[in-house]
Design brief:
binds magnesium ion; elongated; Ribosomal Protein S5, domain 2; binds adenosine-5'-diphosphate; Heat Shock Protein 90; six-stranded mixed sheet; 37% helix; 641 residues; Four Helix Bundle (Hemerythrin (Met), subunit A); alpha+beta; 3 domains
């Protein structure tokens, strides 16, 4: 096959153009990261080659000394980053450099506000990778050849970052990728070898491949010739996770996280452990400070890398950690898996299963430690907010664990945090709730609603407020599923206060008397109940007297085993077919409207009053009555009276 040397011009994908603009505007004060990104890519490429070579030794082409070489040319004002990793073929160059193929990219750009500070933060979550070259360069030339291809299948890519790039087939003797940055005027500082070396130390000491540069020539001593400069290895070049903890600083851990997590920020917490037992493996796992933009995308990349004897095998997936811990980033390395077998065989190996279980346990343990220290004075006497920070970013993910991970359900349940009638912030744990339960209370009460405000102002809460009984206020979508799976905690039942009949008679003082008084009231309200029941007909499952209300005239409840009305709304909004659930209308016998209704004779008036009570109760849930205009008309008629 002969190589075609056609030169083509391609346009960047729209998103790439946007990314470039945004990056240059928001990251100009952090230019040095370009080197971190390029080294990070070179190291990934070396990882990939080493993995592919485990089944095809020929890919090494006789050169298995994987490394990165950085060359500075002061005269031409260029920096070249060269690797002998996997390289790319023409299609891969088009797909990887010039396109952003990640799922959710469109949504990501939709989130950008134009506010530079906010966007800079978002862009950190997204990761700018290769494109960060344009922070320092006004022209970037990339020449690459994929390992295993003939030398005439090299590809030359060049762009000035203004919307287009050129592509050309060229000859490339050695495999791998070479990226030359033609520096901008204001990026001269990066021509200084010392500056480059210090950046490499800062960001790439932990990269498990040597990063090499030319050393400075040794000046000639008297009567001798100048010694030529020798090649130096700048970084430590040992995999960070294999080094003893005692040797590593927080900065080492932070920098490694940025490489592995593709994040700009320091992590929130990490754990580094070597486990010995039936299987031996090392974990270095991190919790990010902020959720990545694609946390809720089904196809999102997961962030734990599997290494076998220091050889990179694959990027995470649910084989290494359960889905509900998908926010964890890091590395697992083991000696107990074979190197050159297929993914499928790996996935079925007992070692893998043991690692997944072990890692899950340790991550939960780390969260438990964080939760334990929450609120205590941390460094500099500031209050430790780590767990609260974690919860606000990833709490909803962790809730999935209740549904997904039966074996760890109890541990996860202890890690949950909710708002309640005692606290607007999501800071109440179930254990705390149980500790605060009233004398005689044996149930954990909660309410689900579309928003915290709707939950907080729900009429269902009235009697709980009066009796001083705490109620958990749940307003995340997932809470409906959560509470259908988590039905008990610490031997106490969890009960929705908008479902089933409520019996609070055993709680509080004078319980006996209160019960009697209530029975009498119910009796007195019987005529009203009958009238409303007849008037509403099959709009409701039943009408009954309640003691849950102290101020409102009526509220809706679901039958104990029916779907809650909030759940019904969620499913309907999601376009699902839901069987029509009829609610139960509960009325407050002490309320004036109810008492007036009991005395009414006119059919029309009874109908109007009944339907007002019903529609009001719907409104109080944050939903709309079936006929809003009709409701307004009836209310106005009532006002005129
Ligand atoms: P990321 O590293 O997060 O995937 P980048 O923008 O840094 O994003 O790189 C995009 C893609 O380009 C990489 O995933 C990889 O496929 C390819 N790539 C970049 N640099 C190299 C390199 N030195 N060798 C081989 N492939 C590379
Ligand atoms: Mg990258």
């Amino acid at each position: 096959m002969t190589a075609t040397s056609t030169k083509e011009t391609h346009a960047f994908q729209t998103e790439v153009k946007q990314l470039l603009d945004l990056m240059i505007h928001s990251l100009y004060s952090n230019k040095e990261i370009f080197l971190r990104e390029l080294i990070s890519n070179a190291s990934d490429a070396a990882d990939k080659l080493r993995f592919e070579a485990t089944t095809d030794d020929a890919l090494f082409e006789g050169d298995s000394d994987l490394h990165v070489f950085i060359d500075v040319d002061k005269d031409n004002r260029t920096i070249t980053v060269r690797d002998n990793g996997i390289g790319m073929n023409r299609d891969e160059v088009i797909d990887n450099i010039g396109t952003i193929a990640r799922s959710g990219t469109k949504e990501f750009f939709g989130q950008l506000s134009g506010d530079q500070e906010k966007d800079a933060h978002l862009i950190g979550q997204f990761g700018v990778g290769f494109y960060s070259s344009f922070l320092v360069a006004d022209k970037v030339t990339l020449i690459t050849r994929r390992a295993g291809l003939e030398k005439e299948h090299g590809v030359r890519w060049e762009s000035t970052g203004d919307g287009e790039y050129e592509l050309e087939t060229v000859e490339k003797e050695t495999r791998g990728t070479e990226i030359t940055l033609h520096l901008r005027e204001e990026a001269d500082e990066f021509l200084d070898t010392w500056r480059l070396k210090s950046i490499i130390h800062k960001y790439a000491d932990h990269i498990p491949f040597p990063i090499r540069m030319m050393g400075t020539p040794v000046p000639a001593a008297e009567g001798e010739e100048e010694k030529p400069a020798e090649i130096e290895t700048v970084n430590q070049a040992s995999a960070l996770w294999t080094r003893p903890k005692s040797e590593l600083t927080d900065e080492d851990y932070n920098n490694f996280y940025k490489h592995i997590g593709h994040d700009f920020e320091d992590p929130l917490a990490w754990l580094h452990q070597k486990l010995e037992g039936k299987y031996e493996y090392t974990l270095l796992l991190y919790l990010p400070r902020h959720a990545p933009f694609d946390l809720w995308q089904a196809e999102a990349k997961h962030g734990v890398k599997l290494y076998v004897r220091r050889v990179f095998i694959m990027e995470a997936s649910e084989d290494l950690l359960p889905r509900y811990l998908r926010f964890v980033r890091g590395v697992m390395d083991t000696n107990d898996l074979p190197l050159n077998v297929s993914r499928e065989i790996l996935q079925q190996s007992p070692a893998m299963d043991a690692m997944k279980k072990g890692a899950t346990k340790r991550v939960l343990g780390m969260l438990e430690d964080m939760a334990k220290n929450a609120g205590e004075a941390g460094e500099d006497d500031t209050v430790n907010t780590d767990y609260a920070d974690f919860w606000s970013e990833f709490g909803n993910c962790l809730k999935e664990g209740i549904i997904e991970d039966f074996a760890n359900r109890e541990r996860i349940a202890k890690l949950l945090r909710f708002s309640s009638t005692e606290s607007d912030e999501q800071s109440v744990s179930l254990s705390q709730y149980v500790e605060r339960m009233k004398e005689g209370q044996d149930t954990i009460y909660f309410i689900t609603a579309e928003t915290l405000a709707a939950a907080k102002h729900s009429p269902h809460l009235e009697v709980f407020r009066k009796k001083g009984i705490e109620v958990l206020l749940l307003s995340d979508r997932i809470d409906e599923w959560l509470t259908s799976h988590l039905t008990e905690f610490d031997g106490k039942k969890l009960q929705s206060i908008a479902k089933g009949e409520l019996d609070l008679s055993g709680i509080g003082e004078n319980a006996e008397e209160a019960k009697k008084a209530q029975e009498e009231k119910a009796k007195a309200a019987e005529p009203a109940v009958k009238k409303i029941r007849e008037s509403l007909g099959d709009k409701v499952k039943d009408v009954r007297v309640t003691d849950r209300l102290t101020e409102s005239p009526a509220c809706l409840v679901s039958d104990q085993f029916d779907m809650s009305s909030n759940m019904e709304r969620i499913l309907k909004q999601a376009g699902q077919d839901v069987p029509d659930m009829k609610p139960i209308l509960e009325i407050n016998p002490d309320h004036e409207l109810v008492q007036r209704l009991a005395k009414m004779r006119s059919k029309d008036k009874i109908n109007d009053f009944s339907s007002i009570l019903f529609d009001q109760a719907i409104l109080a849930e944050g939903a709309l009555p079936e006929d809003p205009a009709g409701f307004v008309r009836k209310i106005n008629a009532l006002l005129k009276l």
